[in-house]
Amino acid sequence: MEPDYFMRVAAELRELASRLRGRLSASEDRLVEEYVSVNELGLALESLVDALAESEQPVSTGERATMLALAGPMGLEDEVTRALVFCPLL
């Protein structure tokens, strides 16, 4: 994949984490940022979605769509879809 792809995905993950900041704990937010900073983008997305699902945090339709759009190229669509079942819509 192109370097621009990784930069774009990292920026999207950071923006998503920023929008979800009130629904993630400080340690969960730091973990997502740590994964993004070392280019472990799949782990960052999995950690973010798992944290939301574990505490059954609500997500908007747009947030859900962003997570699924990011998950597809990473091969994580099934995992993210399963986790989002536990996140009610806002």
Give a summary of the structure in a few sentences.
The chain is an all-alpha fold and 90 residues long.
Describe this structure in words.
The chain is globular. The protein is built from five helices and no strands. α1 packs antiparallel against α4 (61-74). It has helices at 3-19, 26-37, 41-54, 61-74, 77-84. The longest helix is centred in the first third of the chain and has 17 residues, at 3-19. Helices cover 72% and strands 0% of the residues. The protein has 90 residues and is mainly α.
Q: What labels would you give this structure?
A:
90 residues, mainly alpha, 0% strand
Secondary structure category: mainly alpha
Main beta sheet: none
* Mean pLDDT rating: 96
Poorly predicted runs are none
What order do the helices and strands come in, and which of them pair?
Blueprint: H1 3-19, H2 26-37, H3 41-54, H4 61-74, H5 77-84
Helix pairs in contact: 1-2, 1-3, 1-4, 2-3, 3-4, 3-5, 4-5
